Amino acid sequence: MTSPVVVSASAKQTATLIFLHGLGDTGHGWSSTMAALKPAYCKLICPTAPSMPVTFNAGYTMPSWFDLRSLDDSGPEDEEGIKSATKKIHNMIDEEVKSGIPHDRIVIGGFSQGGALALYSALTSPKQLGGVICLSGWLPLNKSFPGAMKCPDTLQILQCHGDCDPLVSFKWGQMTASILNTLLKKPEFKSYRGLLHSSSEEELRDVKEFISNSLPPV
C-alpha cells in the first residue's frame, strides 16, 4: 500500500483525524483541504487505497477501498472487500491508540466511497471514536445492521450530502440517514442545495465545526 499523507500536529498532539478519499483519488486529494480544517493539536492521516479493478468503472484498475459493484442502494456489494478494508482502518486506529491517543480523540471521515468505509468502520468498532464524518457517502452492507453494530449508540456522526448529487443519489443519502437514526441517539444529517458529487465552502465550515466540537482542546 502507498504510504499515507501525514500532516503532523503543529502543537502538542492530543487528537488524530483519519480521512479517506473517494474512488480513483489518492491521499493527496483531500490532504490540504482537511489540514486547513483541523485544530493545531490534531494530526491528520490521509491514506491511499490500494489499486484494483473496479466493476462499476468497467473493470478499470484504480485506487479503491473495495470493489464498487453498483451505486444503487439495492445493488450487489463486495462484502469480503468491505470487511477487509475495515480491518485496515481498525488497525490504523489501533496504531494511533498505541502511540498514546485515546479512541475518543480520534475522528475518522471520508468522501463518497471513503465516507462509506468510515461509517462502516466506526459502527463496527467496539470502541467509541471521537466522531465520524461521511461526505456524499452511504452505509455499506446496511442490511447487516443492527446486528453488525459494535459501537455505543452515542457515537457522533456528521453526514453531509448534496441534494443534486448525480452519483450517490440524495435519496440514498436520506435512506442512510434514516438507518443511522434507528441505530444511534443523535446522528446529524445536513443537506446542501444544488451541491453535486463534491464539496462546498458551507459544507466544509460544518465539517470544521464538527471536528472542533468532537475534539475540543484538552
Descriptive account of the structure:
It is a single chain. By secondary structure, the chain is an alpha/beta fold. The protein is built from five helices and nine strands. It has helices at residues 28-37, 79-98, 113-123, 170-183, 201-214, and strands spanning 5-7, 15-20, 42-46, 51-54, 60-63, 106-111, 131-135, 157-162, 188-192. Strand 6 (106-111), helix 3 and strand 7 form a beta-alpha-beta unit. The longest helix has 20 residues, at 79-98. 41% of the residues are buried.
Percent of residues in β-strands: 15-25%
The major beta sheet can be summarized as: 7 strands, mixed
- Secondary structure class reads alpha/beta
Helical stretch tally: 5
Ranges with pLDDT <50 over ≥5 residues?
none
Distance between the termini: 34 Å
Gyration radius, in Å: 16 Å
* Major β-sheet strand ordering: 1-3-2-6-7-8-9
Task: State the helicity in percent bands.
Answer: 25-40%
User: Judging from the principal axes of the Cα atoms, what is the shape?
Assistant: globular
What is the chain-wise order of helices and strands?
EEHEEEHEHEEHEH
Annotation, overall tally of beta strands: 9
Mean pLDDT over the residues: 95
Characterize this entry briefly.
With 218 residues, this protein is an alpha/beta fold.
Ordered list of secondary-structure elements with their pairings:
Layout: E1 5-7, E2 15-20, H1 28-37, E3 42-46, E4 51-54, E5 60-63, H2 79-98, E6 106-111, H3 113-123, E7 131-135, E8 157-162, H4 170-183, E9 188-192, H5 201-214
Helix pairs in contact: 2-3
